[in-house]
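As a warm-up, study this chain.
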Amino acid sequence: MDAIVDPGDETRPGLRDWKAWFAEYDNPGSSLAQRLAVVQRGIQRALDEAPAGSIKILSLCAGQGRDLIPVLAEHPRRADVRARLIEFDPAIARVARDAAAATGLDGVVDVVTGDAADPALFGDYAPADLLLLCGIFGNITEADIQNTATRAANLTARGGTAIWTRHRFDPAVIPRIHGWFTAAGFSDLWESDSELPTAVYVAGNRHERNPAPLPDDTKLFTFVK
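Now compare it with the structure written out below.
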């Protein structure tokens, strides 16, 4: 599914070239490849532990779908899943869409081209049993990280999992992120190994409360790099 994207906004000045950035996933020794492995294990765990019945997955800033699609393609619960992946760049979203088709996930994975911070593209999909916030928190302000963590409580079902990433370079914002998730009703499930490169941090949190509807249509965040 495609949303309307302003072509003039596809490559915003000052933001990194994400197509080149994704190439690092193909380097097994890169920090991105190591982060991907941790995220995929977290997704595997969430699917393994999901109760019987349907499983709804929401991935914001989904990129090429590398986090989810390879795991889902091989998982015995794939038939229970309905996933929505949102990616701003049409060319990158096309890669995700093609990957889903190539693995027989056409009716399972819905790739939307649009602004992943816009609730209009996912408000009807919440609450999800698995919320993926990967590759976001290192590219937005702390205020927007707090806002996104807070509103993750509206996007995640009770008992559902939110998986997020952030580098461990200074300033050390990770403890505050955990605090924001805790304040929003999440408990800590797991975190990545501290022996991984400083560029890698991944955590999984479980939502312990009944989610309320999204309070408004205000954007969750804005990329600043």
